[in-house]
Amino acid sequence: MPLAEPAFDIFAEARRQVEICNACRYCEGYCQVFPAITRQTAFASGDLTQLANLCHNCRGCYYACQYTAPHEFALNLPGVLSDIRSDSWSRFAWPTGFAGLFQRSGAGIALALVVALALLFAAIAALPGEGAGFYAWLGHNAMVAIFAPAFLFPIAALAIGIRRYWREVGGKPVVWRDLADAGAAVAQLRNLSGGQGQGCNFEEEERYSDQRRWLHQAVMYGFLLCFLSTCSATLYHYLFDWSAPYPWWTLPKLLGVPGGILLVVGTAGLGWLKTRADPALGSPANWNGEMAFILLLGLTGLTGLVLYAVTGTAAVGSILALHLGCVLALFLLTPYSKMAHGFYRMAALVRDAQVKSGRVPASSGQARR
């Protein structure tokens, strides 16, 4: 079944603004969006979707622009690209419709899901366990039976969404060089420096700041450390027949505790910056869902740290139920929350690498109007 056409007014306005930027070219060195704009003269909706997912919403172009309101052109490129970016996540999400619902009502959905799942885990924990430590509250087999499908489902849903995105933007088969170029940009969060190495303007407006870049790195690497912690615990269990709980000097703890701390610090900082930034330069309709994702990710890291702190006490059962409720809710909501933006942004960077290498034409040719 073909995807629904994106809202015409959003794309018409984005096309108007991008064409003005292409004529001006003052911001050409700011980030990867502007060189991508200058490679073509006409923009299909697929091209605009690609530009929107390349944009990191650093807002430097807005504060440098001479054509923002009250000028008659009234440019707000970060805002209109943010709208298209959110639109693309909603259109490509599978099953269709859930992403838009979460973006509008994310806080209520996340809270209800965490509470419901925590109560479910609390009820399971009241039954006799099958081991020591956490497994005395929730058996290993039960945990695998619950979390394996919850882990595989978002991977499948995201794969479908990325495939839909790749088709619309005109992506081609990926080679190692494409991944290396995009991976370097992701690892350094290069585009959050405004492309000029002096930071971005997200929260300081006319002043540059690296705070958002550092906090994003804390979240990204914190999440990666937590994921590696889980992977190492899995290897210990199945490869070495070494069951949890693990001492502090083992990989699950050495990776997981710093990862949890980075997650909590990073999400708290990003939430604080979001309250200081001008919502009109993002997508105001999706502010609720974006903040809900930040809080859910931070709560997942925080409950994990608290769970480690209360190990061996009577509080383990209730904290474990809350932590597992957060983790499971995060997994299930990943394809529909802003967690998905990392996957789409990586795809956009890979597509941009293909264009820069000359292997792929700049224009997607999709849905030209």
UniProtKB/TrEMBL annotation:
UniProt protein name: Tricarballylate utilization 4Fe-4S protein TcuB
Sorted UniProt keywords: Membrane, Transmembrane, Transmembrane helix
Species classification: Bacteria, Pseudomonadati, Pseudomonadota, Alphaproteobacteria, Hyphomicrobiales
InterPro entries: Citrate_utilization_prot_B, NarG-like_sf
Transmembrane segment boundaries: 107-128, 134-162, 218-239, 251-273, 293-310, 316-336
NCBIfam families recorded: CitB
Highest taxon of source: Bacteria
